[in-house]
Amino acid sequence: xxxxxxxxxxxxxxxxxxxxxxxxxxxxxxxxxxxxxxxxxxxxxxxxxxxxxxxxxxxxxxxxxxxxxxxxxxxxxxxxxxxxxxxxxxxxxxxxxxxxxxxxxxxxxxxxxxxxxxxxxxxxxxxxxxxxxxxxxxxxxxxxxxxxxxxxxxxxxxxxxxxxxxxxxxxxxxxxxxxxxxxxxxxxxxxxxxxxxxxxxxxxxxxxxxxxxxxxxxxxxxxxxxxxxxxxxxxxxxxxxxxxxxxxxxxxxxxxxxxxxxxxxxxxxxxxxxxxxxxxxxxxxxxxxxxxxxxxxxxxx
Length: 301
Prior knowledge:
Elements: H1 8-14, E1 18-22, H2 27-38, E2 42-47, E3 60-63, H3 69-76, E4 81-84, H4 94-105, E5 109-113, H5 131-138, E6 143-149, H6 160-165, E7 169-171, H7 183-196, E8 202-206, H8 214-225, E9 231-233, H9 236-247, H10 251-265, H11 275-280, H12 287-293, H13 295-299
Parallel strand pairs: 1-2, 1-4, 2-3, 4-5, 5-6, 6-8, 7-9
C-alpha cells in the first residue's frame, strides 16, 4: 500500500513546516517520525532521554519533560505543528503543559492522540485519562484535531514469549471484539493532518476494517505462522500481573485497564468506523496484513 504522501502538493508543503513529535520513541511516535522524515520534512523529536533515541538522519532530537516546563520552551520554538502523545494512565498535566508551551510559541496546529471510549463512563477510570488533555487542546485557540484509536494490532507482540514456548497466548478480553487498527495507519493519518490540515475542530475514532476478538486474532496469527496459536483467559489477578510484567503498568494503570478490559469483554468496544479509511484515502489495514508484515517477530520466537 502507498504511504504518505500521495500527492506532490503535500510533498512540497512538508518542507515548509517544522513538526514536533512527542512520544517520539514509542510505537506511534517513532513511525510518525520515520514517515515525516522519509518525505523530507523538518522533524523535531521530543524525548526525556535523547541519548537513547534512534531516529532517521536529519531528525533533530531534543530533551523535554512536562514536569519541567522550561524544557518545553526551546522544544516548541519555531514549530508550526505538534503531535501530542502521552503514556496511558491518570492525568498528570502532561498535555496541558505541552499545550501551554505550544500556545506561548505560537504553534498553529495540534494533533492529540487520545483513545477510543474517552468520555464514556462505562469504560471506567481509563475513559477519563485523556479528557483533560482533550479539553486543553480544544481550549488552545489553535487548529486542533483529536484522534481516538481503538486497540493496536501491535499489542499482540506481547504474545511472543507464549508463542515461543508453544503455550496459549494470554486473553484479557474473552470473546469481546475490537476494531483493531494497525499503528502504521494511525501514524500516517497523523502525518497527513499535521502537514495538510483541513481537519480543524474534528475528533476521529480510528479503527481497522473489522471488529475482531483475541481468539480471532490468534486464529489469524496461526494461519500466517502455519502453527497453532491457542488462547487462555486470564483471571483478574492474572490480568493485573500481565499488565505489570508485559506492559510495564503501575498499579493505577493496571486497575484502570482491568475495568476497561471488562468493558471490551462485554462487547462495549465492538466499534468499526470509516474514519481511518476516509482519512487515508484507502482501506485501513486488516489484522491479517499486520500479522503478515510482522511474522518475523514471531518466527524468531
